[in-house]
Amino acid sequence: MDETIPALFARQAASLGERTLFLVKRSGTYQPITWHEASEQVTALSTFLLHRQVNVGDRVLILSENRPEWGMADVAIQSVGAWTVPIYPSLPEEDIRLICKNCEPVVCIVSTEDQLRKLLAISASIPSILSMLVMEPLSRQDALLIPWAKALEKGRELEPRLRDLREHRRSQIRPEHTATLLYTSGTTGEPKGVMLSHRNFLSNVQACLAVIPIHQHDLHLSFLPLCHVFERMAGWYLMLSVGARVAYAENMDTIPQNMLETRPTIMLGVPRFFEKLHARIQEGLRQAPPLKRRLAQWAMQVGRQTASYQLAGRRVPMDVQIQRWLAGQLVMKKLKARLGGRLRFFVSGSAPLSKEIGEFFYHLGITILEGYGLTETSPVITVNRLPTPRFGSVGRVVPGVEVKIAEDGEILSRGPHIMQGYYRAPEATAEAIVDEWFHTGDIGHLDSEGYLFITDRKKDLIKTAGGKFVAPQKLENLLITDPAIVQAFVYGDRRPYCVALVVPRMEECHRVAQEQGIGERPVEDLLRDPRILKFYWSRVQAKQQGLAGFEQVKKIALLDREFSQATGELTPTMKTKRAIVAQHYAALLEELYQAPGP
C-alpha cells in the first residue's frame, strides 16, 4: 500500500461514514463514535494546528492514556506533516524531560490535569513548547493551556479560511516521510527516538493482514498503551485499514468486565496479561468443588488429545471429536463466555510467551498467536498463523520481510519495515543497521520449516565464571508457568552458578503455611521460614528438570513484593530492567552466594 496514514484515514472515513469507529465508556455505558464524527474532529484539530503554525517535521507530543482522542490527535498531527511523539502516561517527570529535551516538541497534547502537572513541572526547561492542549476540562487558566473543546471550536471556525492550506499540506505528505518518533522503553539505558515512516507502518499492516484474518466486522478491545509500537500498529492502524471497531478498556482492573460489555473478537496482549489470566483460571479450578474440578481436568485432557492431532496436521478421530464437542459444551463454552463469547483469537507480543501457557489456552479452545518484532521494525517480523500455531516459536516471517541468523546467533532483518534511524543519533543508527540489515540484539534460530525461535537478548546472556552462557529468560519463563510463582529473576553473570529471585503467589504461601502448621507471621518472616523455602525450592527444581546443569539455578530467595514500574524495575511494556533489579537486590543476591547449601 503506497499511501500515507492521513490519506488512509480520509479514504476510510469517506467510505464508512456512519459506521462505528470507536467505543468508549461514558456515564457507565459504552457509547459509539462514528467515522464521520471522528473525521470531523481530525479536520478541526489539524486546522487548529495549522493556525498554531505547526510546520512540516515539527514534533507534537501526546501524553495520554488510551482513548479515542489519542487516535484522532495522531492522525491530525500527521495530516499537517508533523511527527507524533507519544509518551507512556506512566512515565515520571524526569523521563519525560529527557525525551522532550531530545525531540523539542512545539505542542503537547495531554489527557488529564494529572498528566498536565508533569509537563508544567518541566516546561520551564523545554522552551520549544508553545502550547498545551488538554483533553479533559481544566480547573485552571493559563495562556499556555488550551482545552480540547476550545481547540476544536477554533479549528471549525478557521476551517473555511485554512481549508486549501490544510488540503495542500496533506497532499504533500509522502509514504517515505516520517510519521512518528517513538522512544524505546529502555531496558538497558536511556531511551532512543525511533523514526518510523508512513510506509514503515503501512507495509507492516499489509504484511500482517496477508497472514492473519482481520476484517471490518471485528471488534478490538484495546488496553495495551497506544504509545507502544505493537498497539499502535496492530491495535490502531491495522484496525483503521480494515474498518474494524476499536473499544477502549477503562483500565487494567476493569478488563474482565469490559470484555463482557464489548464482546471483542480480537485482543492484543503481552505475556504478563496471559500469565495473570492463566493463574486466575488455575486458582478458580483449585477452589472449585471436586466434581467441577474433575470435569475441567477431563476437558483439558480432551483438549490436549485434540491438539496433538491438530498441531501435527492429522485428522481428529471421530470419538475424540465427539468428546471435544461435549467438553466444549460443558466447560469451554462457559470459559469463552467470560471472555465475551465472541473472541476469535488473542495476539501476543512485546516479550516471550511461555510455551506452556500458549498450549494451556489452546487446549481450552482459545488461540494465542505469538509474534515477534521491535520498535525499530514497525514492529512485526514474524507471527504465528491460524489454525495451527507452533507454540514455543514466534511464528514465520511475514510477507515482504527478510530474516537471517548471524554467525553469533543474532537475528537480523531487512525490508520496508526497518526504521529510518534513531533521531539525532547517527552513530547508534550506523551500529544498528549494517548493509540494510537491522541487528535486533536478540538471539535465536530458524527451524527447517521457517519458524523462528528466540532464546534470549544478546546483552542479557549470562556468562558464568566457568565460561558457560546461560539464557535467563528461558528459565524465568519456565518458572512463572508454576501457579505458585508470580515473577522470577535469574542472575549469575561472572558468578560460579546462577541463582534466582522468586516472587511467590501469596495465597499459595498462606495455604502451605496452614498445611505446615505455621502460625500467623509477618510476610518477611514467613518467606524465610525453611518449610516455605523448601516448598518453593521443590517447585523450582521440578521446573528446571531437563535443563543442563550450568543452566539451572542452585539457590533461590523469596521476595515479598512484585517488580514494578513504580520502582523502575519494569518498563511500561512489563519487560524486566535487569540492571535495576540486580542493583536493588544486590545485598540479597550476594547473601545467596555467601550462604551454604541450596
How is this structure best summarized?
The chain is of the alpha/beta class and 598 residues long. It has 20 helices and 27 strands. The chain is globular and about 75 Å long.
Protein model, in words:
This protein starts with a helix and ends with a helix. The relative contact order is 0.08. It has a five-stranded parallel beta sheet with strand order 4-3-5-6-7, with helices on both faces. The chain has a five-stranded mixed beta sheet with strand order 12-13-14-15-16. Strands 17, 18, 20, 21 and 22 form a five-stranded antiparallel beta sheet that branches. The protein is built from 20 helices and 27 strands. With 598 residues, it is an alpha/beta fold.
Strand order in space, largest sheet: 4-3-5-6-7
Q: Uncertain spans, ≥5 residues at pLDDT below 50?
A: none
| Helical fraction | 40-55%
- Beta-strand proportion: 15-25%
- Major sheet description: 5 strands, parallel
Which structural class is indicated by helix and strand composition?
alpha/beta
Average predicted local confidence, pLDDT: 92
**Overall 3D form:** globular
Pick out its properties.
598 residues; alpha/beta; five-stranded parallel β-sheet; 21% strand; globular
Topology:
Blueprint: H1 5-16, E1 20-26, E2 29-34, H2 35-51, E3 59-63, H3 68-79, E4 83-87, H4 93-103, E5 107-110, H5 113-122, E6 131-134, E7 145-147, H6 148-171, E8 178-183, E9 193-197, H7 198-209, E10 219-222, H8 229-242, E11 245-248, H9 255-262, E12 266-269, H10 271-287, H11 290-311, H12 318-338, E13 345-348, H13 355-363, E14 368-373, E15 380-383, E16 396-397, E17 402-405, E18 410-414, E19 421-422, H14 426-432, E20 433-434, E21 437-446, E22 452-457, E23 462-463, E24 469-470, H15 472-479, E25 485-491, E26 498-504, H16 506-515, H17 523-526, H18 530-543, E27 553-558, H19 578-584, H20 586-594
Parallel strand pairs: 1-11, 3-4, 3-5, 5-6, 6-7, 10-11, 12-13, 13-14, 26-27
Antiparallel strand pairs: 1-2, 8-9, 9-19, 14-15, 15-16, 17-18, 18-21, 20-21, 21-22, 23-24, 25-26
